[in-house]
Write a structure and sequence with these properties.
elongated; 3-stranded antiparallel sheet
Length: 67
């Protein structure tokens, strides 16, 4: 049984002089359990508008109860 769904949005926070990227992530837990991939991408766009951050990945993580 699906217990919880988390949306993880990753963005590039900084780039050092060698060109290596430092990435950070924002996690939104307890999103709707029936959230579709399309809706997750729409949510990514809305949050990007609010924060001014450009997200490079959007990831849905499921937590399930195993009996």
């Amino acid at each position: 049984m699906l217990k919880e769904l988390t949306l993880v949005l990753t963005y590039v926070a900084a780039v050092d002089e060698d060109g290596r990227e430092a990435k950070k992530a924002r996690r939104f837990s307890q999103v709707r359990l029936d959230l579709t991939n399309t809706q997750a991408l729409e949510l990514q766009g809305l949050i990007s508008e609010l924060t001014g951050e450009t997200y490079v990945t959007a990831e849905l993580t499921e937590q399930k109860v195993v009996n």
